[in-house]
Amino acid sequence: MSLGQQLAPHLPFLRRYGRALTGSQQEGDRYVRAALEAIVAAPEEFPKDVDPRLGLYRMFQGIWSSTHPDDWEAREQSSGGEAIARARLARIAPVSRQALLLTAMEGFTVEDTAYLIDTTPEEVDRLVSEALEEIEKQTRSKVLIIEDEPIIAMDIETIVRDLGHDVTGVAVTRDEAVALAMEDRPGLVLADIQLADDSSGIDAVKDILEEFNVPVIFITAFPERLLTGERPEPTFLITKPFQRSTVKAAISQALFFDQTTVPAEG
């Protein structure tokens, strides 16, 4: 099997990581493209003594670390998400956010993450704690949950409240989701794809976004259906079944890059 064939199954998830790291589909894909170009240009430099997925992320990390996020200041154009993130990034070391995303969202072990960012497992644990504390401090908001499975909805609600956010409501259908959003505007939406009456969480989100901008995290058992590269894709995507730490990381990142966050009361 060629190197390209070995890497292909992992590309959608590397793109997910790139988008979560940068807060932008276009920017994240730019880094992924640069990593692939580096592999094609010098395949002999691709790590041979590790799993192909680990080697792929290692190549991506090399590209990312060579372009520090502070370079955003020099760009002539940047998205609203990037603009609001600059102030926050000034208070959070980029490596802390990488450690958080690699462990909580991408599912790498502490040891693998240490390899990817050139540090020790003990330092990875410290960095993850640091990132969560700082991001949570900066991003308190109100959250709408769109989920038709009661147990999953309760679990998500607990996670959201544990992070210090308020829950505006839990919707089980498209119409209910839109009504709740209009009644009490959320600063974040967590949306399942398939809802109780066979309506679509994607359609519910589209309806809400026609009224106002809000960051969205989609939840699905089939992330590859949304990570096609052929249409606008969600920046934040959680795979079912999910880990609590994954949901926490996605919420923190979505609010971290958002410029329209509605503060929670109190």
Automatic annotation (TrEMBL):
<feature type="domain" description="Response regulatory">
    <location>
        <begin position="142"/>
        <end position="255"/>
    </location>
</feature>
<protein>
    <submittedName>
        <fullName>CheY-like chemotaxis protein</fullName>
    </submittedName>
</protein>
<dbReference type="Pfam" id="PF22233">
    <property type="entry name" value="PhyR_sigma-like"/>
</dbReference>
<dbReference type="InterPro" id="IPR053867">
    <property type="entry name" value="PhyR_sigma4"/>
</dbReference>
<dbReference type="Pfam" id="PF22029">
    <property type="entry name" value="PhyR_sigma2"/>
</dbReference>
<dbReference type="InterPro" id="IPR050595">
    <property type="entry name" value="Bact_response_regulator"/>
</dbReference>
<dbReference type="Pfam" id="PF00072">
    <property type="entry name" value="Response_reg"/>
</dbReference>
<dbReference type="InterPro" id="IPR001789">
    <property type="entry name" value="Sig_transdc_resp-reg_receiver"/>
</dbReference>
<dbReference type="InterPro" id="IPR011006">
    <property type="entry name" value="CheY-like_superfamily"/>
</dbReference>
<dbReference type="InterPro" id="IPR014605">
    <property type="entry name" value="Sig_resp-reg_PhyR"/>
</dbReference>
<dbReference type="InterPro" id="IPR053866">
    <property type="entry name" value="PhyR_sigma2"/>
</dbReference>
<keyword id="KW-0597">Phosphoprotein</keyword>
<dbReference type="InterPro" id="IPR013324">
    <property type="entry name" value="RNA_pol_sigma_r3/r4-like"/>
</dbReference>
<feature type="modified residue" description="4-aspartylphosphate">
    <location>
        <position position="192"/>
    </location>
</feature>
<dbReference type="GO" id="GO:0000160">
    <property type="term" value="P:phosphorelay signal transduction system"/>
</dbReference>
